[in-house]
Amino acid sequence: MNASMLSYILFSCLLLSVQAQNCSVREIIRYTNRLLEERSLGCPCRETAGSSCSCLPIAEPGHELACFVEGTKHMQENNNLSSNPIIAWLNQIFQVQRDRNLCESLARGKQCQYKTKGNVKEFLNKILRTYQAISK
């Protein structure tokens, strides 16, 4: 391996670590795991008005941040987790990341695009898988 290849690899690693830092990857993973430990998250998603379970968007690739903003906002307004400060923190972080394009791989679209909806647990697992992929 020549010196230019080595410097390219080191520069790429530096860029990836800076991007991961701007994405608050470790914090998001830690707090999402904390939310997933709650017991009341697994109820089935029903889109009827009388359901106490939220149906949240499971994002298409490239639209994660927009859907994470929409989903956490919905959780703040319509869920038994609404008083949880972690939800408010996540919503704020996702808004900043979306608005400032801090996580390039996630912020292709400002609109939430999804084919399916899921319950809170499925939504949080999508957040977890997304940020775990960035941290690799």
UniProtKB/TrEMBL annotation:
Which UniProt keywords are present, listed alphabetically?
Signal
This protein's record includes keyword Signal: yes
Q: Which GO terms describe its molecular function?
A: cytokine activity; interleukin-9 receptor binding
Q: Single GO cellular component annotation?
A: extracellular space
Q: Which residues form the signal peptide?
A: 1-20
Q: What is this protein called?
A: IL9 protein
> What is the species listed in this Swiss-Prot or TrEMBL entry?
Phaetusa simplex
Q: Which gene encodes it?
A: Il9
